């Protein structure tokens, strides 16, 4: 299997093959509109603008699994992202990233790259880990996505290169992008 074997749904219901993005470097992100990390939409848009001319694309996949922080559907989410954060990168239909109904693309991504221990990197991450214990402790186990704004960096050949947690630095993410562009 490769990332190009997966289908995703656009907010208008249209099915899109990930093959569409062959030859591009991707940053695939599970997002939410009402999360304390929503400021990252602006950072993601800046990366999209900065590296877009080098065949770099950010792909946003709204998810409502983390404290019901994205109750809107894909179309409403896209509108909110455009109006509130100036997002121009593609936003898809709402998906699940953990559990029995995990979208196949995210199941694939979670198993393609190692994850790091979560809850120790910074004070912000420690506080987030404590919140996760209260809301969904199973999200801290194994390869599960811990929270909104987990990112997967995919190279132009479709290989998953790195996973970034929501608390990871934009600077670190940009350095990883620059390394593979």
TrEMBL record:
Coiled coil: none
Superkingdom of this protein's organism: Bacteria
UniProt keyword Protease present: no
InterPro entries found in the cross-reference section: Glutathione_peroxidase, Thioredoxin-like_sf
GO terms for MF: peroxidase activity
Keywords: Oxidoreductase, Peroxidase
The keyword Oxidoreductase is assigned to this record: yes
Similarity section: Belongs to the glutathione peroxidase family.
Name under which the protein is recorded: Glutathione peroxidase
Source organism of the structure: Lysinibacillus pakistanensis
